[in-house]
């Protein structure tokens, strides 16, 4: 059985569609290093604790130096509510890239985070993460960079 002109056209269209799908398909994201997974978990757990109103749990994710600056969870939460409202009211969180080491100090890393709050406002945050003697990661600081973008 010979192929007709119509058969060749159909095969051509199918080949173009297959090539398009291959080009559009996103490659699998590379696996994260263990420290990146741990850092993201700490940030997400603190944000979850804020959302649940669990002040003690949220405070526990702060590095010892941060905890020493505040007399307890109540003072810490008051500061977060006053100066870090987008973090306290976060609804969506995204990590655009792995955490970056600071000047050959693998025990201190910066994790960029995109946060969308309850009002749909986006904020970029830079979390300073500090590895503890027990190998856990704690939040040693956070810098907010507000944007004019709204999440739609």
Tell me what you see in this structure:
The protein is of the alpha+beta class and 152 residues long. The protein has helices spanning 5-24, 34-52, 55-60, 64-69, 73-83, 85-88, and strands spanning 90-94, 100-102, 105-117, 121-131, 137-150. The protein has a single domain (33-150), classed as Nuclear Transport Factor 2, Chain: A (Roll). Strands 1, 2, 3, 4 and 5 form a five-stranded antiparallel β-sheet that branches. It starts with a helix and ends with a strand. Residues 21-26 have low confidence and may be disordered.
Explain the layout of strands and helices:
Elements: H1 5-24, H2 34-52, H3 55-60, H4 64-69, H5 73-83, H6 85-88, E1 90-94, E2 100-102, E3 105-117, E4 121-131, E5 137-150
Antiparallel strand pairs: 1-3, 2-3, 3-4, 4-5
């Amino acid at each position: 059985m010979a192929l007709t002109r119509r058969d060749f056209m159909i095969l051509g269209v199918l080949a173009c569609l297959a090539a398009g799908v291959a080009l559009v398909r996103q490659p699998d994201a590379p696996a994260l290093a263990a420290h990146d997974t741990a850092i993201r978990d700490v940030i997400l757990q603190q944000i979850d604790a804020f959302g649940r109103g669990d002040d003690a749990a949220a405070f526990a994710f702060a590095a010892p130096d941060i905890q020493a600056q505040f007399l307890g969870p109540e003072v810490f939460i008051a500061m977060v509510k006053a100066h870090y409202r987008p973090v306290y009211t976060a609804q969506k969180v995204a990590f655009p890239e792995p955490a970056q080491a600071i000047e050959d100090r693998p025990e201190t890393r910066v994790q960029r985070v995109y946060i969308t709050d309850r009002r749909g406002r986006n904020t970029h945050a830079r979390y300073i993460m500090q590895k503890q003697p027990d190998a856990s990661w704690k939040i040693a600081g956070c810098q907010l960079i507000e944007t004019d973008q709204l999440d739609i």
